[in-house]
Write a structure and sequence with these properties.
The complex is a heterodimer of chains A (about 170) and B (about 90). Chain A has about 170 residues and is mainly beta. Helix content of chain A is about 10%, strand content about 30%. Chain A is globular. With about 90 residues, chain B is an alpha+beta fold. Chain B has a three-stranded antiparallel beta sheet with strand order 1-2-3, with no helix packed on it. Classes of the chains: A mainly beta (about 170), B alpha+beta (about 90).
Chain lengths: ~170, ~90
């Protein structure tokens, strides 16, 4: 079992395309930070069982990404890279989960969590119980669901901001 | 719905690859199940599935500019370059 935590970020370098495999040419919005990458989910996102193909693109600033379905343009998500924040969280990800994505080492995996946005910033939250694992080299992804953990499905980012008001992003 | 009667120690097999065995029925009525399934079959309690489905559906954002809006809200030092669009969302499926 591999443990990933905010003290041992697993994906510091993973935001750079390593070999261009599966690199896409999706929209480059005003907040786009790099070329998009085509992803295929091994298991569909819960609630979106009919969708397997997405693109992902990192925002220019901050630990945020945009996940866009290529099969349904109305389905897109803002994602957070929790290990690029000062969120104190441990996630145990098995070697098998990493291997499922075609990755050889944990360094190839980017861990992302879904954000629920709201007009009220204090209500913006992320789901730590069901992170999305991405292997940028293979273009494979999956949403994990931790069953034996107290990680919250609804973690409010205002709590994170209070924890680290002057340290917005790990570098 | 297919309804089968099974006693502790007895099993059912789904698609030839998933074996579900009744391990115990407690006095309180709780049934303990053993599930043997290949790794690519995700086995979860239904209430957890429903909770994550709902959260995923709520997370749908309509426009990529939502990221810029998020930055403006959470990272006060960052300039917001576009007006927010589709900041909140509802279930679409």
């Amino acid at each position: 079992m591999l443990t990933m935590s905010s003290e041992s970020p697993a994906s510091v370098d993973s935001l750079e395309r390593s070999d261009g495999v599966a690199a896409g040419s999706a929209d480059s919005g005003s907040h786009a930070g790099e070329a998009s990458l085509h992803l295929r989910f091994l298991l569909p996102l819960l609630g979106f069982e009919h969708l397997f193909l997405y693109t992902i693109q990192r925002a220019q600033k901050g630990p945020f990404h945009w996940l866009q379905s290529t099969e349904d343009t109305k389905v897109g998500f803002c994602l957070l890279e929790p290990f690029q924040t000062h969120l104190d969280v441990d996630m145990e990800i098995s070697i098998e989960d990493i291997a499922d994505l075609g990755a050889v080492t944990a360094d190839e995996i980017t861990v992302l969590t879904m954000l629920v946005l709201d007009q009220d910033p204090t209500k913006i939250r992320t789901n730590l119980r069901a992170p999305i694992l991405v292997c940028r080299r293979t273009g494979l992804a999956k949403q994990m669901v931790f069953t034996e953990t107290k990680l919250p499905i609804q973690f409010y980012l205002k709590d994170l901001m209070h924890l680290a008001p002057n340290a917005r992003r790990r570098t | 719905m297919l309804v089968l009667g099974r006693r502790p120690g007895e099993s059912i097999v789904i698609d030839g690859v998933i074996t579900l065995t009744v391990l115990e029925v407690t006095r309180s009525g709780q049934v303990r199940l053993g599930i043997d399934a290949p790794r690519h079959h995700q086995v979860l309690r239904k209430e957890l599935v429903l909770e994550i489905q709902a959260e995923n559906r709520t997370a749908v954002a309509l426009d990529q500019s939502a990221i810029g809006d998020l930055l403006g809200r959470l990272l006060p030092g960052e300039a917001r370059t576009t007006e927010p669009q589709g900041v909140t969302s509802d279930s679409t499926t």
